[in-house]
UniProtKB/TrEMBL annotation:
Top-level lineage group: Eukaryota
Organism whose genome encodes this protein: Brassica campestris
A matching Pfam family: CLASP_N
Domain TOG: start-end pairs: 82-309
Gene3D superfamilies: Leucine-rich Repeat Variant
Taxonomy of the source species: Eukaryota, Viridiplantae, Streptophyta, Embryophyta, Tracheophyta
InterPro entries referenced in this protein's UniProt entry, alphabetically: ARM-like, ARM-type_fold, CLASP_N_dom, TOG
Name of the protein: TOG domain-containing protein
Transmembrane segments: none
SMART domains: TOG
Length: 356
């Protein structure tokens, strides 16, 4: 009985030995490749057909290169054309009818083409595209969120041309566009950041500071320190464009409070931008409120009811509008630079209104 049970096991071991002695080519003879039905194997428990690569593809690597997807081929065709080098569209009416659909396309190359068409329409057919801005700008914002860097950069360039062409006409549509540009300028690939910064510079150049500053002020409190830094730079570029009269109308106290909040920010870019704004505001304030330097009638010696606004110094003004710590920080920053050095900062864009 024992031999009956051992016989099968001996047979199995002999069979395994025979298999092990076979050449590799004979072992694979049972799984011959076929043009119509390749060998079936299992991967992760699933049976799936795995066609063998053709000998031509193995021997000639150029065969593989010719089988790249169309989108990869088109990647080299995407060009970043500067605004001054853009040509007019051949048929403006036809492009106007298709540009919105192109911006909403799932093909990223088509989106880039549509974005460049928006740029051309903004430059050469400004009035014709004005009625489409409500549809175009949200799609430009969508492109700014696109994971492809080529689409992001083209969208940044499009934003710059839109600011240049439409100025204050896009103020009501600016919020989402501004947020994305601040984000892209602070945390993306370098060439995308540079394009976003150019768009923000175009925004501060062409959009009225009176309309832009209320949009920027909430960004100064953003939780992302890099966004705050970029917003601070935009803020510092916009304030001088107000001019002396514009600063008075907007409210110098509001501007001082906004700038003071950035003096203790995490990033040095924010602090330096705030310092620049505060020096500007101090110079404007002191020109608008000259101090009477007369020993017989100094402001402190006058009765309270006879003191005029001109008698309020920059120090007193800051202490009255800011918390004690903020006022101390502002005075420490603005007292470092002598008055003659600050005079060059004052309102380069409003020389005609520099005397109040």
């Amino acid at each position: 009985m024992l031999t009956l049970f051992l016989a099968p096991s001996r047979m199995a071991s002999n069979t395994l030995k025979d298999l092990n002695t076979l050449p590799v080519t004979e072992k694979m003879s049972e799984c011959k490749p076929s043009l119509t039905k390749p060998c079936v194997g299992k991967t992760n428990g699933k049976a799936e057909d795995r066609p063998l690569p053709s000998s031509a593809a193995v021997l000639d690597p150029s065969v593989v290169e010719t089988e790249k997807p169309e989108a990869e081929k088109a990647a080299v065709e995407v060009e970043y054309i500067e605004s001054e080098n853009l040509d007019d569209v051949d048929d403006a009416d036809a492009v106007l009818k298709t540009v919105v659909a192109g911006l909403d396309s799932k093909d990223w190359v088509s989106v880039c083409d549509a974005l460049n068409n928006v740029r051309r329409l903004s430059i050469f057919h400004k009035e014709a595209m004005l009625h489409l801005l409500e549809k175009v700008i949200p799609l430009v914002v969508k492109s700014l969120k696109n994971p492809r860097s080529a689409v992001c950069k083209t969208a940044c360039m499009t934003s710059a041309d839109i600011f240049s062409a439409y100025n204050n006409d896009i103020t009501d549509l600016l919020d989402s566009l501004l947020t994305q540009l601040l984000l892209k300028s602070s945390q993306d690939k370098r060439f995308v950041c540079e394009a976003a910064e150019k768009a923000l510079t175009s925004m501060t150049k062409y959009v009225s500071p009176t309309l832009l500053l209320p949009k920027l002020q909430p960004c100064l409190k953003n939780r992302n320190p890099r966004i705050r830094a970029k917003a601070s730079l935009c803020f510092s570029r916009s304030v001088p464009r107000l001019g002396v009269e514009g600063i008075k109308e907007y409210g110098i106290d509001k501007l001082v409070q906004a700038a003071a909040s950035q003096l203790t920010d995490q990033l040095p870019e924010s602090r330096e931008a705030a310092r620049t704004v505060l020096l500007e505001l101090q110079s404007v304030y002191e020109k608008a409120h000259p101090i009477i330097k007369d020993e017989t009638s100094s402001p402190s010696s006058l009765p309270e009811e006879e003191q005029t606004p001109e008698a309020v110094t920059w120090k007193v003004f800051c202490q009255s509008k800011l918390s004690a710590l903020s006022a101390q920080a502002v005075l420490r920053v603005t007292s470092v630079v002598a008055v003659p050095a600050r005079e060059g900062l004052v309102t380069a864009g409003s020389s005609s209104s520099s005397q109040l």
